[in-house]
Design goal:
303 residues; mainly alpha; hpI Integrase, Chain A; 2 domains; 11 helices; 42% helix; globular
């Protein structure tokens, strides 16, 4: 199979591993919606979200499309005449983001082992995605002499939107980076044994969540926390887009020293040393599940 980015390889392998017990022994022509129903129901019973199941189904769909359009046998014929239609699930069970308060952050982080604490502290102060943190390399660091600091530029093949990503650092993030110097010649973050890390969502992370009373918090919520704090401090939408690594329609990804200085000023507003950030409160209704969705008719049974 071909991959748009190297990060896709791990995701494809994960999906195929989950699919293997159900369709691994079937010939391609027998892989269709009917034979995938068992997989879908099994994943549902395990509590897997619809969006995750859809990503697995998308891998199957990709393989079937390649078999019907590109891959050919020794006679020049495609492996399949046509690719069967696969129906994606409705993502009505998507979980809402959970930005952390400063108190929750402290409660969670203090329960993490040192190597994980450093990564999540860097993540919550830069808004990077998990793989962007774990794969961060020293040769991506770029010195900015005029500002007496440095930034990281992550190549587009390691970024979700495929564009090079500029990473500016506040006081907290720079301190994390400086503590990592000299530990590994290639990668910024390592395990305690000196080997490069490959994930944040480990058993230690999940155990710390439980101990902190925050089982609902995901690694990606650290990115949401960064974004919400920027917004609460009045950082403009355009600047937030740059800092969060979102596509913003700009043609160039080059920035002048004054522009980088403005970005650094923005991220300093969400550092631990400047906790004047307004309290973030998620408003939830305890009765939200007791009422039918607007526009949905209730079924009427016999009285």
């Amino acid at each position: 199979m071909d991959y748009q980015h190297k990060r896709s390889v791990g995701r494809y392998a994960q999906s195929l591993k989950a699919l293997d017990p159900v369709i691994g022994d079937l010939p391609l022509r027998q892989v269709h919606q009917g034979t995938l129903d068992e997989f879908i129901q099994s994943r549902r019973k395990q509590g897997i979200k619809a969006n995750t199941i859809n990503r697995d189904l998308a891998v199957v769909r990709r393989i079937l499309n390649l078999a019907a359009r590109l891959w050919r046998d020794e006679y020049g014929l495609t492996w399949l005449e046509t690719a069967p239609l696969l129906q994606m699930l409705d993502c009505d069970d998507a979980r809402k983001p959970y930005p952390l308060s400063w108190e929750e952050q402290a409660r969670l982080f203090e329960r993490l082992p040192d190597h994980l604490r450093e990564m999540v502290l860097f993540k919550v102060n830069t808004g990077l995605r998990e793989q962007e943190v774990t794969c961060l390399r020293w040769d991506w660091e770029v010195s900015i002499p005029e500002l007496k600091t440095s930034v990281f530029v992550i190549p587009g093949n390691g970024v979700k939107n495929g564009e090079d990503r500029l990473v500016v650092m506040n006081t907290e993030a720079r301190a994390v980076i400086n503590r990592q110097r000299g530990k590994h010649p290639e990668f910024v973050f390592t395990y305690t044994n000196g080997k490069p890390t490959d994930r944040i969502n480990t058993k230690a992370w999940r155990r710390a969540r439980e101990e902190a009373g925050l089982p609902q918090v995901r690694v990606h919520d650290l990115k949401h926390t960064f974004g919400r704090r920027l917004r609460s401090r009045g950082v403009s939408h355009e600047t937030r887009q740059v800092l969060l690594g979102h596509k913003n329609g700009q043609i160039t990804t080059y920035y002048s020293s004054p522009e980088i200085g403005e970005l650094i000023e923005a991220v300093e507003k969400v550092s631990w040393s400047d906790r004047s950030t307004p309290t973030l409160t998620l408003i939830r209704s305890e009765n939200s599940r007791k009422f039918p969705a607007i526009g949905r008719r209730e079924s009427r049974g016999a009285v």
